[in-house]
Amino acid sequence: MKLLVTGGAGFIGSNFIRHMLSAYPDYRIINLDKLTYAGNLENLQDIDKFPNYTFVKGDIGDSHIFDKMEIDAIVNFAAESHVDRSILDATPFLKTNVIGTYNLLETARQKACIFLHVSTDEVYGSIDRGFFNEDSRLLPNSPYAASKAASDMLVRSYVETHDVMAIITRCSNNYGPYQFPEKLFPLVILNALNRKPIPVYGDGMNVRDWIHVNDHCRALDAVLHKGRAGDVYNIGARCERTNIEAVRLLLKKTSEQLGIDEQELTGLITFVKDRPGHDKRYAIDPSMIEGNLKWQPEKDFDKGVSETVQWYLSNEKWWQRIVSGEYAEYYRTQYGESI
Ligand code: NAD
Ligand code: TYD
Q: I need a labelling partner for 286 at 20 to 30 A (CA). Which of 72, 123, 292, 317 fits?
């Protein structure tokens, strides 16, 4: 199979490429990535010399970049992905997440190839009780979520109008190696290592539904090979935690691995002004992918968190380069000090 992976230099995309090259050594993968602040070729250093892997620097909004590519399927990870940035300025979210996806849909239409659109549970908005299923209404609350919902709508329209073989997945919050340090898990680990305040928004009681990135990648593999065109699949591991619970677990694991007193790190927790429009709870029902595609998450949360902490402790060179670069400026605007 010839796969075009877009946004493959980011967190989930790079883990997906690694998973696919290991599971299907005969597949050919083109990774097209614009290398925004979140794109990092060091995420793929171990495989960039593989003969069946090619990197192309480019924008999914560029309508001619795909002309000469032979593609059986597109897996679209390319996106602006951070809610807080979408609150500061939504423009790049609209350009990439909406117009960029439209351009990819036109490409999939012209090439008559499969289009797997990697979306998010955030398109459903917040739910106090119960779970979102694939038929739940889309009620996005952040500019990020709205741009992803808009892209999902475009995908649906291309299935209905142009018979594009498109599938949408909506996954819950991912954690694991190579996640950019603006996101909660790496932010907590790195601030703990640097003995910086750990900002918890509001009262810390917002609930997120966590999944290890490898389980997400295995689910995307299942959807790509066994999913039905036009379908939507929720992906989640039934692992709800309040933010404060997740932060405390991360600090427990970090202190154990550093061999220090846990209280030295929990004392860094600082409750800060809440994020505007902050969704209270995300919770999805993954029964459809579990039943129809026989996928199940494998990673236990406690073990996955330990391994993730260990990964950041062992890969200081990787994150040092990020925190000393462009990210340092963003961190200063958010938290008023340097990391
Ligand atoms: P990320 O921010 O780590 O990576 C995004 C990648 O896309 C980067 O490599 C970036 O350079 C690239 N990119 C951005 N704009 C581009 C453009 N115009 N053209 C080409 N490349 C471009 O994001 P992530 O966390 O890996 O998320 C990947 C996808 O998964 C996103 O679509 C996101 O909405 C979705 N998702 C993420 C999560 C999560 O918890 N991280 C959960 C569910 C769904
Ligand atoms: P995040 O990793 O930004 O993912 P998302 O907003 O897409 O769910 O945040 C996860 C949760 O953690 C979310 O409820 C916001 C909260 N949060 C904090 O409390 N402090 C922080 O510094 C960050 C980045 C997030």
A: 72
